[in-house]
Amino acid sequence: MSVPAFLVIALPMFAAPLAYLSGHIGRSQGMIRPTPGRARITALVVLLAMWVPFALAVQQVAHGPLTIAVGVISLRVDGLTLLLAAVALVLGTLAVLFAGPDLYGEDGEEKFYAAVLVLIGAIIGVGAAGDLFNLWLWFETMAVTSYVLVPFYRQRPAALEAAVKYLVQGAVGSLIVLVGIALVLFRTGTLDLAALRTAADHSGVLLAAGACFVVGFGVKAALVPLHTWLPDAHAEAPTAVSALLSGIVIQTGLAAMVRTLSALAPSVHTWGWVLAGTGALNMMAGNLLALRQVQVKRLLAFSSVSQMGYIALGAGIALVTGQALVFQGAFFHILTHALMKTLAFLAAGALLYVLHAETHGPLVVDDLSGAWQRYPLPAFALSVAVLGLAGLPPLAGFMSKWQIFAAGIEAGNTVIALLVVFAALNTTLSFAYYGRLAIAVYRRPPQFGGGRSLPVAMAVPLGALSLAVIAIGMWPQLVSWLTAPAGRALGGGL
Amino acid sequence: MATWLVALTIGLPWIGAALVVTFGRRLKLAEALAVSSAVVAAIAGLALLPFASSAPVIRVPAGEIFGEFTFVPDGLGVFMAVVATVIGALCVIFSLDYMRGETQLSRYYGFVLLFIGAMAGLALTGSLLLLVLFWELVALCSYALIAFHADDPRAAAAGIKALIITQLGGVGLLVGVLVASTHLRSYDISTLLAGISSLDPATRGIVAFGFLAAAAAKSAQLPFHTWLPDAMEAPTPVSALIHAATMVNAGVYLIVRFVPAFGPVPGWTTAVMLIGLLSALAGAAMALSTTDLKRVLAYSTISQLGLMFYAAGAGGIFAAQFHLLSHSVFKALLFLAAGAVIHATGTREMREMGGLAKQMPVVAATFAIGTLALVGVPVFNGFWSKEMILETAGHGGGAAVLLIAAALTAMYALRTTWMVFYGAARAAPGQDASPAMRTALIPLAVGTTTTWLLAGPFSRLLAGTLPYHRLKIISTGQMITSVVPATALALPVVAVGLIIWWERGRLVPLTAHLRGIERAAAGGFGFEWINTGVIRLTESAAAAMSLVQSGLLARNLALVMAALLAALVVAAVVAR
């Protein structure tokens, strides 16, 4: 058993109660001042400490997948696990850093940090599951944690409504996944993903199981038309949660789906095509719905629906062709999108915080006027993020979209090539709303007083992510050490 | 040496941009940084001319997916980079006075410098991937600078419109590059030029017409031209640099660069020529029917770029490039002079100008020089290059269309000069060009009168470094002797154009018949109608789509169940 790999998963799970207690005990003992912010320190320390076992695990995985066996539970850490872990760690660290001033002293603050730790551990767990039972368990852990995180502002009816919709739809999705797992067990007698690759046949039962996986995981991955919960949940959650949900949670849903479907080897082509087609649907629906939005966070949520389309298109083509390079493209876009979308949400959240933190009211596009003059860093960060999402160079989104498009043309199939053209046209359509956002921050400020200064804890994530988005756009090879092994984890050579 | 010069030409403006943004709060320093980086980049670009060669001087391997990032300083690339950096430097200098007092100048200079570097990169790169990258990067700069006055909703809308329409065409380039590089297993431009014949005809057609769509959109050719007049919301130095002298030329550059590869594709050269002819004619007609000074120049750019498209399609590579050089210089001059006028009068409406020649002698003189070059009066540079294009056309129907366009050009150019600088004074008294403006205007005016003398060296530069184009070297003397006889036809046509405008009062019965054409031209020949149609369609699709997003949990769950049913149907169909 690999100790670093074990620690990467175990640390956040074991530290979560600690974070909760460290924030909570001080209060219940009736001290004069409660101790807000303490749970955050614990969480931050744990997240930073996790980088050490993570780095060791990266080195070990280069020689082949690692196994973690505790009793009967057996996990398998490969390139895809590490990619999800890296994204979850980066996003988690920055979100916790950012949330400090945002949630300082809010009711339930310590629960938030504990839940974020569980969420990060669960995401890594989904990536590491080697059999369908563990996969479902980790997946549900992730889902339940995110249901709790969305209604953080529980005095707000809209947040509660969003959470209930998310919970009910998510639960239905999980149930459908469970039915799929039952069908697999019924037909093959095994749940182990590696064994399933050889045991699976082209029977109706397993095809029905595949359908269950596409739809069940598809709810969490926000595939159209299963995405209807997403805009409410992602817009109503606290900024740090919005960033995590849009940046990595929905992508983890897709990763779980892709891992499961690729184990059903004989029918993988079918589901690849379905996924690619759904991807096209996602782009169009997300773009069209985003066009009409005036609330910034809601607009970004719809942008996630459309961006999931590119990832699903890439993953679909990858399932059809089975090539590692194609998987790598889809995973590359997961990574760049996570950075760009987190940057966008954090920048919007920072502006929300400095402009009207007390009300938690929605930030509309007109509120962005004057942001450049008063808050240059969030304004710059927001424009970098949305222009990167639009796929303009020299930003990261250009390179990852390019890789997906190149993979599509490379597949040498007319229908896939047409899907790529459709995706490229959709990118053009998306300029209409991304461009509008980027312009809005450079308008002249309205006549208003007040507005507080930007805390350092918010400035640091914005600066770091902006740099990363530009650097990866200029030099895409920077992250191939993560994306290439992730691609090889699922696909074969050329 | 060449390696360093290429790196400096592209990199210096970018370093300048980063520094300008960093020190944006200290205006004087930022301005000094902007000017110095642009000027040094221009010097580096000029110094690159003797080192032109067809071999790559920078090669950076970027892994198996992204190929090799290469830069090749061949004649075509160096020439375009010189135009971008030299005119870029002059426009930055002009901006010092033109933009004085504006806010957020670090954003302005930052994007202008980013653009200059990106345009030089676009010209010099030898990699198809980087070609697409720079292609979109200049579109980003263009969008950001058109929408620079973010408070003006028209500027914001124009910026987004320019981005969307040029990128719509850019999809063609993207797909073309991806298809070509997939089949050739290389991103190398010279591999595409050498190996195009190994592709099957259908693939070659996709690549060739994809590139053509991108080129037409970037160069504002029909039917994509509608973004360019709206783009005139940009600050005038930006219009001069991006929307007259450099970025819009990228389309012509693309055609010329790949003409050896796509020429044999059936219908391709015909399509290029047709687009060029229609744009030349329609642009000139539209220029005649507007009274907004900058829009006249924008329509004129569409028309002049049409001439270059035509020439490139008809095989006159050198003529197209030579006119590109002339046009870059004289159109930048016209725009900057117009900028000086707009700066002084505070309006773009020509009906509110008039009689400005007395108050602004330097501006009037330089604008007049630009006008003469645009009309094609000897000995200005536009005369020689336009005559070469007419010569390329021979005596067919194309030549007739070009001659009509030339006559219309003479008419609108004279009309514009007259309305702005002569006649009754309607404007508030304005000031003549300031020193910084003169520093930009006078070199361009000198260039407008002299760049034609460079025909010989320019021809040697192109012929010597473009192995696939098989160009003939001609000397300046040969050019003169070949052009002069041809003028027998063209000059009278220009004269007719001038006379028609001059005698317009007496030709009222005739012009009454042409009202319909004029009205159609004023309406942009209905192409704007296509745009609004597409926008309306998109909006109604968005409205329909929001029905899916009902926000009702029961409906959401029904959708989940419907999706499950659909997936099971797929499973059932596949299982059979």
Features:
heterodimer, A: 494 residues, mainly alpha, two-stranded antiparallel sheet, 19 helices, 2 strands, globular, B: 576 residues, two-stranded antiparallel ribbon, 26 helices, 1% strand
Count of discrete alpha- or pi-helical segments spanning 4 or more residues of chain B: 26
Question: Main beta sheet of chain B: strand number and arrangement?
Answer: 2 strands, antiparallel
* Count of individual helical segments of chain A: 19
Strand content of chain A: under 5%
Give the tally of β-strands of chain A. 2
Largest sheet: number of strands, sense, barrel closure of chain A: 2 strands, antiparallel
Structural class of chain B: mainly alpha
Structural class of chain A comes to: mainly alpha
Shape of chain B: globular
Q: Give the assembly state of these chains.
A: heterodimer
Measured on Cα atoms, how large is the radius of gyration of chain A? Answer: 21 Å
How confident overall, as mean pLDDT of chain B?
85
Most extensive chain interface and residues per partner: A-B, 76 and 63 residues
Along the chain, the helix and strand elements of chain A come as HHEEHHHHHHHHHHHHHHHHH
What Rg of chain B is obtained from the alpha carbons, in whole angstroms?
25 Å
Q: Kindly report how far apart the N and C termini of chain A lie.
A: 32 Å
Low-confidence stretches of chain A: none
Question: Which percent band covers the strand fraction of chain B?
Answer: under 5%
What's the count of strands of chain B? 2
Q: End-to-end distance of chain B, in Å? A: 68 Å
